[in-house]
From TrEMBL:
SUPFAM superfamilies: Carboxypeptidase regulatory domain-like (SSF49464). This is CarboxypepD_reg-like domain-containing protein. It comes from the Bacteria. It comes from Flavobacterium johnsoniae.
Length: 345
């Protein structure tokens, strides 16, 4: 059985050709910064600068990842288009502590920190089996603000949130850029949540790769958003994969999307669905069934978007999932480069 499992992983792995990029990291006064962390957002791909601030990192031009350069006490730097860069020279500015502007007055707080942390974990880490054992090493670095007029809880952190996921064998460093939970009244309970969102930049470090962990990762991948977008790009549909339906009737993916390949990108044109109610709020909406049992729904509020090589895409905020897929948050998250072997040319 173990041999069959490794054979499956071998067949699943996709080989992708990458390139190397060289860089140097300095402070504004041109002092080299040794030990700076350099990583591709959402992946396990990373390196550190040497004693002279030099670094080399491998990347895939078709993956469209953001390159993040971080150093303790300095503002992060982001490079969004590596395809145009051959050599990088990075100058870093001293960080400003934005949390100093947040005034905390416990007498005016109507909800406890414990209550805020609970709702944060629910909508950031998740509540699935995978997320059960997840811990946050630096919870004290997370700060909250509750807007009592608009019923919105926001979370902030000037430091990356360090997440340990023993179930999937990863340590995740997550630079939180946005976290909001909106309630329908003055509340801190999930039953009153009407909207939630979070975003940020993440780096994955493997801390366990035992046979059991590898099996868990493969199970976490199957049925995930990244699995859905990779399959959509490749035209992979079926009873053991994803199936689309509308009003309890199966639909043919070719009638829903027009797919075309453009260099390293996959262009997806969402075909406007016929809607008897003349609802113009979105372009199309479909029910999704994975392996004939996991039910979700996806709403496309965009006519055209692009899927990159790893399964990330250009318009993630315009594509909204509900149901099973939406339940999977940080506790179920895998690196974007999961299952893809990078070979440098």
């Amino acid at each position: 059985m173990k041999k069959l499992f490794y054979l499956f992983l071998l067949l699943f792995s996709v080989f992708s050709f990458g390139q190397r990029i060289n860089g140097k990291v300095f402070s504004l006064d041109k002092t080299p910064l040794p030990g700076a962390n350099i990583f591709l957002d959402g992946t396990t791909i990373s390196t550190t600068s040497d004693g002279d601030g030099n670094f080399v990192i491998e990347y895939d031009p078709g993956a469209k990842n953001i390159l993040v350069i971080s150093f303790m006490g300095f503002e992060n730097q982001y490079i969004t288009d590596l395809g145009l860069k051959k050599d990088l020279v990075i100058y870093m500015d001293v960080a400003k502590n934005t949390l100093n502007e947040i005034v905390v007055n416990s007498k005016k707080d109507i909800f406890t920190r414990q209550q805020r942390l609970k709702i944060f974990r629910e909508y950031f880490i998740g509540e699935t089996r995978n997320s059960d054992k997840v811990t946050i090493e630096n919870e004290d670095d997370i700060h909250f603000k509750y807007d009592k007029q608009n019923f919105v809880l926001t979370a902030y952190s000037d430091k990356p949130i360090v997440i340990i996921n023993p179930f999937l064998g990863y340590k995740i460093s997550y630079g939180l850029q946005k976290f909001e939970v909106t309630f329908n009244k003055l509340s801190i309970y999930s039953r009153d949540v009407v909207k939630n969102c979070y975003s940020g930049l993440s780096h994955f470090e493997e801390i366990d790769n035992s046979d059991l962990i590898l099996k868990r990762r493969e199970e976490a991948f199957r049925g995930s958003q990244i699995n859905f977008f990779r399959n959509l790009a490749n035209g992979t549909w079926g009873r053991d994969q994803f199936l689309l339906s509308k009003n309890n009737s199966g639909v043919f993916a070719g009638d829903c999307f027009k797919i075309s390949k453009q260099d390293h990108l996959t262009k997806v044109e969402v075909i406007n669905q016929k809607n008897d109610t003349n609802d113009k709020r979105f372009v199309a909406s479909y029910d999704i069934l994975f392996r004939n049992r996991e039910e979700s729904n996806v709403v496309f509020d965009v006519n055209t978007f692009y899927i990159y090589k790893y399964g990330n895409n250009s318009n993630i905020e315009d594509i909204i999932f509900t149901g099973k897929i939406a339940e999977e948050k940080i506790g179920d998250m895998l690196p974007l480069n999961y299952g893809i072997k990078l070979e440098v040319q």
